[in-house]
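Entry 14. Structure prediction run on the chain below.
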Amino acid sequence: MENLEIVQKVGVVLVCVYLSWRIIRYIWSFLDVEKDPLIVLVTGAAGQIAYALFPMIAKGAMLGPDQPVILHMLDIEPAGDILKGVKLELMDGAFPLLKGVITTTDVIEACKGVDIAIMLGGFPRRKGMSNKDLISKNIGIYKAQASALEQHADTNCKVLVVANPANTNALILKEYAPSIPEENITSLTRLDHNRALNQLSENLNVHVGDVKNVIMWGNHSSNQYPDANHAMVNIGVGHKSVKELVTDDNWLNTEFITNVQRRGEVIIKSRRLSSALSAASATCDHMRDWILGTPKGTWVSMGVYSDGSYGIQPGLIYSFPVTCEKGEWSIVQGLKIDKFGREKMDALEKELIEEKNFAYSCLH
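Output returned:
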């Protein structure tokens, strides 16, 4: 008799649990409302980097698997037919998160309501061109695009400049889009960051996913400084510093740096085209970590507006180690810088000051 009562009570409890679960699911179905789509502008949209990037955005790799997007694709007039072809391919991809695609050669139409702007477009470096030549060619492009973002984008629009010279192009954009918060304008050094992670993983014969906290300081240029002094490796039972694991310490200050600096040249020589897939992936990584946050205990490299951290002149777009949370980045503070690193960082600061002064002389 007692056993029967126990069975009955257990049955009642199970029924109650089941009914509660159904009620919760029913209520949750009303709360689980699809997010509003974010409008993502991509300039230089007929190029190879954009072609590799679009599927990543449309699949949710950049903004999350539950975030719908509308793509605004901008390029110059001669690329109009290419844009139409890329749009057709995106539609044929049947991406559930892709809620719309606008292709245009009109910068004002492209910038309307934009939440995220990825600036891939710019005047390409020709053989024999100096950085000053490249800056002067890009000023007009970035002035026009910045003015359109200023007038037509969302007030909290987040901007990533990829086209080179990325740091200085970002400064020009900031000059002509003063209402966009300075912390919302960034430049890409994540490709160099990812290349540095790969160099360390190959040297140590570990998976690249087990390496973290390398730093790209300063400028995306041939003088860039990849710093592994604070990098860590997951060895399965905890973490060890790269400096502990690398048998040839001199390698970190010589071959490691030059391998990262010259990686783009190696790819061009092999592929006969500049790196597009890895650049697109790095762009996706930059925006994902910025919007969705960096993993705990991990930092990444971003070109951001200097606040004077590490003695770098305020007002430059300079690459620092940052952590991100809820759409905001913060520069990692208190890292020890050795003499070798200080010299490299100061040289890059000087390089960026020279680029800034030249750009502003052209502006005015």
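DSSP finds 13 helices and 14 strands in the chain.
Filed with the rest of this week's runs.
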